[in-house]
């Protein structure tokens, strides 16, 4: 009898949380970890925790003793994610009479016939919603407006600001977890609570600054953290996960697998506020200093400042332009071979690209994240000018990064086909091109002329004025030097078989 009484003994506990820890992914979710104090008695304990985010995934919750000394058996977990709001208070008092305050201050009574399901825009408080809502008897499918009976008449919408009685003792003000925990012993412990939450993301941005005409630059990196989780985090320890992580995402009530590319962080001249380490098949970047993340706020932290990074300016001429008639069609090789005009239009623009190596010798040398890269250059008056922007992918150390920044003003290209013959009986085709690159700058430049051999996989280049480099199964490149105010002409012929 005594043992049975102990087994049914129930205690309610208030949890005291320590500083939280976050691991934020770039797919709009995070792992939230925090320490909560438990004072368990033998038997069944009722424990309530109100510190969750508004977008917590309750089925991901883990509650455990990190020391492994106390065995916790969670008999039941209830997640209450619908805290007190105007909409659910209307639903709670449906069928009852409450008071409403009109704009002129007059108080009237009204019975809530129907609470309605008119959506309240995110970020709008109750007073704003009441004051600006335009209720209509004709709502969107599945959406109804409040219906109020007042002074013997029915009204769609609220006649004034609703004045509700006092809250019930068990009213939920924040998203809440309610556990029923069985313990075989008395124990005071700091338990670890962890769960997945939506509404948090991060990204990286880079600013690259060059002086005068030098190709040695300073690289500054920022990480931007966005908290839309519905909860503020004070003095949080933050880590950022980089890599391709699969995460099931709900879509119309079902789940699908989603793969995304995460960002990462880099090194610096001085010790940065971020450290990096390999974690499983990913990279984990930890901010060295705790930081506070208010809800609905974006925070930026400088994570990388590297000087004397050597870059190289590259000019690329990819002169083939596909006519818009062909661009949106899935053409096979037979169709392409039998359409002589395919790919013969000329693109005059020469691309400007920046290339640098992510190596220790180049004052970098750790994994860099996917993110936007912006290029600036100081002119002779030390004024900073913007010269281009693009995106880099997640880049391991010792890899080469190429970033397109725009089109050259003083270098132009011209491409024309000089011959095309097809022999259906022998299953062969021959094609020849002439590419011109004109340099209007005051100094010589090297231009990489890229050609796509798009009429088949089996090809052989015959006559050519310059030696090509094979880049892949259908791409060749000619690296040519064009003197100042001169024109360089590249000619070649290609023979296809199938």
What's the helix and strand layout?
Elements (H helix, E strand, L loop, with lengths): L1 H6 L4 E3 L6 E4 L4 E12 L2 E7 L12 E3 L8 E8 L5 H7 L4 E5 L5 E8 L11 H7 L14 E4 L2 E4 L4 E3 L12 E8 L3 E12 L1 E12 L4 E12 L5 E10 L1 E8 L2 E8 L12 E6 L2 E6 L3 E3 L3 E22 L1 E2 L2 H4 L5 H5 L7 E2 L2 E9 L13 E8 L5 E9 L7 E24 L4 E12 L5 E8 L6 E6 L4 E4 L2 E8 L3 E12 L1
Parallel strand pairs: 1-4, 2-16, 14-26, 22-30
Antiparallel strand pairs: 2-3, 3-13, 4-12, 5-13, 6-12, 7-8, 7-11, 8-9, 9-10, 14-15, 15-22, 16-20, 16-21, 17-18, 19-20, 22-25, 23-24, 25-28, 26-27, 28-29, 29-34, 30-33, 31-34, 32-33
Give a short overview:
With 498 residues, the chain is mainly β.
What does this structure look like?
- The chain has helices at residues 2-7, 86-92, 126-132, 324-327, 333-337; strands spanning 12-14, 21-24, 29-40, 43-49, 62-64, 73-80, 97-101, 107-114, 147-150, 153-156, 161-163, 176-183, 187-198, 200-211, 216-227, 233-242, 244-251, 254-261, 274-279, 282-287, 291-293, 297-318, 320-321, 345-346, 349-357, 371-378, 384-392, 400-423, 428-439, 445-452, 459-464, 469-472, 475-482, 486-497.
- The chain is mainly beta and 498 residues long.
- Mean pLDDT is 81; it is low at 1-17, 120-139 and 251-272.
- Among the domains are: 2-82 and 172-197; 86-163, no CATH class; 309-366 and 395-497, no CATH class.
- Strands 14, 15, 22, 25, 26, 27, 28, 29, 30, 31, 32, 33 and 34 form a 13-stranded mixed sheet that branches. Strands 2, 3, 5, 13, 16, 19, 20 and 21 form an eight-stranded mixed sheet that branches. The chain has a five-stranded antiparallel sheet with strand order 10-9-8-7-11.
- It starts with a helix and ends with a strand.
């Amino acid at each position: 009898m005594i043992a049975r009484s102990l087994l049914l003994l129930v205690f309610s506990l208030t949890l005291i949380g320590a500083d939280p820890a976050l691991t934020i992914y770039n797919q709009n979710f995070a792992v939230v970890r925090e320490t909560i104090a438990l004072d368990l008695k033998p038997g069944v304990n009722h424990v309530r925790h109100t510190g969750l985010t508004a977008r917590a995934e309750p089925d991901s919750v883990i509650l455990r003793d990190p020391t492994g000394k106390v065995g916790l058996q969670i008999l039941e977990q209830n997640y209450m994610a619908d805290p007190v709001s105007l909409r659910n208070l209307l639903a709670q008092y449906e069928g009852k009479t409450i008071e409403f305050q009109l704009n002129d201050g007059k108080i009237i009574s009204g019975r809530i016939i129907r609470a309605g399901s008119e959506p309240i825009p995110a970020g709008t408080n109750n007073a704003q919603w009441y004051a600006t809502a335009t209720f209509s008897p004709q709502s969107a499918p599945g959406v109804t407006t409040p219906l109020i009976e007042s002074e013997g008449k029915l009204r769609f919408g609220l006649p004034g600001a609703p004045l509700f009685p006092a809250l019930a003792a068990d009213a939920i003000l924040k998203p809440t977890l309610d556990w029923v925990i069985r313990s075989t012993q008395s124990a005071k412990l700091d338990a670890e609570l962890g769960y997945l939450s939506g509404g948090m993301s991060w990204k990286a941005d880079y600013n690259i600054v060059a002086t005068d005409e030098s190709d040695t630059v300073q690289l500054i990196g920022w990480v931007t953290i966005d908290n839309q989780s519905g909860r503020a985090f004070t003095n949080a320890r933050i880590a950022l996960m980089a890599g391709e992580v699969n995460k099931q995402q709900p879509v119309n009530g079902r789940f699908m697998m989603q793969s995304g590319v995460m960002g990462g962080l880099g090194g610096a001249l001085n010790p940065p506020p971020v450290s990096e380490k390999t974690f499983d098949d990913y990279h984990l970047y930890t901010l060295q200093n705790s930081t506070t993340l208010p809800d609905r706020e974006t925070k930026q932290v400088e994570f990388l400042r590297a000087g004397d990074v050597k870059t190289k300016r590259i000019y690329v001429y990819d002169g083939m332009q596909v006519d818009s008639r062909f661009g949106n069609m899935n053409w096979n090789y037979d169709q392409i071979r039998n359409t002589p005009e395919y790919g013969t239009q000329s693109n005059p623009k020469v691309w400007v690209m920046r290339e640098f190596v992510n190596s220790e010798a180049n004052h970098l040398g750790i994994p860099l994240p996917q993110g936007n890269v912006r290029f600036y250059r100081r002119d002779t008056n030390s004024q900073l000018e913007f010269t281009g922007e693009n995106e880099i992918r997640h880049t391991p150390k010792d890899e080469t990064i190429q970033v397109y920044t725009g089109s050259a003003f003083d270098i132009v290209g011209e491409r024309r086909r000089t011959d095309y013959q097809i022999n259906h009986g022998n299953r062969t085709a021959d094609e020849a091109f002439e590419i011109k690159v004109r340099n209007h700058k005051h100094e010589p430049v090297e231009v990489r002329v890229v050609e796509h051999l798009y009429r088949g996989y089996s090809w052989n280049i015959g006559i050519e004025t310059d030696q090509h480099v094979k880049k892949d199964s259908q791409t060749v490149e000619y690296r040519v030097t064009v003197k100042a105010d001169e024109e360089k002409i590249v000619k070649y012929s290609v023979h296809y078989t199938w």
